[in-house]
Each structure stands twice: as C-alpha cells, then as structure tokens.
Amino acid sequence: MSKKYYIETLGCAMNVRDSEHMIAELSLKEGYEAAESLEEADLILINTCSVREKPVHKLFSEIGQFSKRKKAGAKIGVCGCTASHLGEEIIKRAPSVDFVLGARNVSKITEVLHRPKAVEVDIDYDESSYAFGEFRTSLYKAFINISIGCDKQCSFCIVPHTRGEEISIPAELILQEAQKAARTGAKEIFLLGQNVNNYGRRFSGEHPKMDFTDLLKAVSEIEEVERIRFTSPHPLHMDDAFLEEFAKNPKICKSMHMPLQSGSTRILKAMKRGYSKEWFLDRAFRLREMVPDVSISTDIIVGFPGERDEDFEDTMDVIEQVRFEQIFSFKYSPRPMTPAREYEGQVPDEVGSKRLKRVQERHNEMLDEMKEERLGRLYEVYFEELKPGGMVAGRTGNNWLVHARGSEELLGRTARVKIVETSRLGSVGEIVA
Ligand code: SF4
To answer: Which domain holds residue 285?
Structure first.
C-alpha cells in the first residue's frame, strides 16, 4: 500500500508553490499519495509562514493537536519560513516534531524524512537550478517560481532572514516549465517571486542576461500560454519599459499588485522601501493612463513605529487617489531579526486598530461603488473551478472572481460573460459566447 501525506499550507503563493514542490518530490521519489484526512497520513507536513506573529503562535498549538490525532508511527515535519527562523528550537519546544525543513531547502524533503530530528534551514542553500518533479494543485493554472529569496531589506520584514539572498532561476528552466504546463492544460501561468521585477539581477553561475520585461515577453511567446500573471512586483522597479510591456502584451492579465505599505514618504524611508509617495502615485497614474481598466491591489501596514496622524492621512490620501480594487491591510507586528522592532515610537495597539478600521471601512465603501460599475459589462473570464449547484468559477483578466452557470467543459476555457450580479467578494455572470 502506498504511503500517504497530509499537508497544511499557510501564507503566501510562494508557500503554496513550495508545498507543490514537496508533494512532487514525495510522490516521484517515495511513491506518496494524498491522504483523505490527517488521521490516515503517514507523513504530516506543516508549511508555515512567519510574516506575522499569529501563525507562529498557532504553530505550536497545532503541533500539539496533530500529535494527538496522528496515527501511530506517523511523522510530523515543520517546513517553511518559521522553520527557517526557529530551526531546532521547534524540536526543543515540540519533541513530537520529526524534522524541520527551511523555506530554502524544500528540495531536501525526501532526504530529511529519513533522518530522525533533522534540521535543514540553510538560508544560503542554492536550489535555483533544481529541477523539481511536477505537481500542480490546479489543472488549469501553473505557479512557477522565477526567483528565490529577497535582496531588499525592508525594515519590518523577516523574509530576507528566512528565504535568504535573491537568486533568479535560469530562464530556460522557467520557460520549459511554462511550456510543459501550458501543453498539459494550464493556460494561465503565474510567475512567482518576492520581488519579481528585480528578475535577472543575480543568477547562480553563467546565464544569459535577461530582465523581468524580457522574461514576460519570452513566456508570452509560448503559443499555448493564454494568460500570464505575476506576484509580487516592487513599486521601485516599475520602470517605463516594464509598464509598457504590461500594457501592450495581450497575454498579460491587466491586474497589478503594487505593495504600497505606507503613503507617507517619511515612513517609507523608515521602512527602507526605496520609493516616495510621489513615485508610487506617478507609477500608479502612468499605469492607469496606459491601461484604464487595470485593477490595482496593494498591501498596507498601519501603525508602523513613528507613524503620526499626518503620516496615516498620507496613506488614506493614496487610497483615495489610486482606488485599489483589493487591499491587504495589517496592523504592524514586530518580527524577530528586523530593525523596525527596535525603532522608537512604537504605536499603541488601539491607535493601530483604529487606523486599520478606517482603511477597511473606506475600502469597503469604494468596493461598493466599484461593484456597481461592473454591472451589465462584458468580460473575458478564464474558468478554473467547479462549484456546487451547477456553477463554475473563474477570473477576469483584471482578477475579479466571477461565477456562472456551467459544467466541466468550461474549465480551462475563456468565455465572454455579462455581469448580472455583484458583491464585494465577486460577481455572477451569464455566458454570452
Ligand atoms: S521586498 Fe521587502 S517586504 Fe517584500 S519580501 Fe523583500 S524585504 Fe520583505
């Protein structure tokens, strides 16, 4: 009988892809299959996130629960960013854990599995040229890593300490992967990296020079690829050539993530983001000028140390001016190993909560206005998922979720849809062609 794995993935799209890589390695080299439940699994993996504090606290209570529920002899492995940052402390605090595998070491999964109490958390480990086995969570969309690590040193962020220095994955590997995925039904390619538009800054070994704009062009030349998305680009590297390619290349979906973090130039400086409020607005306006229907999403941190009322008003001002379709907003949470943790002027929790509430309430009002604008309009929707009640779900190029009546034969296809109902969370449409 084959061995079974159970995996829980927290955090960002990079973690989702790391989980896919581990599953591919486990099934290719060890014959593992997915378990229906945790109780049935021979191997339980928790792929963790440490960008905020909450998931780290949750990890230890979860390990406790999983060890009670697991079957006798089943192993527990803790992987991902928290594994990188806490290392062997995890096994000391939770002896039921069998191994710890860092976010930059996922290619070693089938090796650590057989080494009792192994701790592999080397953030200098270079797996940029490692050809992982194939596994995709979705048949219709392929996540492809284009770089590992991050060279920025944003003062609030733990990622450079958990994923290490940035190394670009050679373009030939990315293109091979994209070609294979598109030929086997994933017509949407999702390029992933902490800082995608810094692509090509550093390769391991000799590789032809290529930047992110060139990479986008190369992926779009693969005939079977219909749609390209990417995350996360950094506002600092949004030069004209990149924005022009984004605007004119019909295969690139017209949704852009522009992580603002703060609208105050003073706070952006303290965050070490490398751009000003004016630069951010200039890039967002240039983008809207070139692609009027573009959907822009963002990340915002409120209550960063030293944030005064006027700094927060600058953030609100950018929200008003850019009208983001999606805002991932958070209260600042001090992370280990980050300079901002030691900054003076930590903002009281209740002030942070009030500011967060204001961002979210104003954004909800804006979403209500935006959803009205969608009613009755036609969009190209790429369908990816079957839903209960004879429905299918997909996304417009500008990343709005749309449900429509339909069945399996719509999956992996793009159809023209008229929007007949909208809410903040998505729309319902009727297929017109
Ligand atoms: S760009 Fe900044 S926020 Fe993003 S992963 Fe790198 S250090 Fe963290």
So the answer is: 257-373
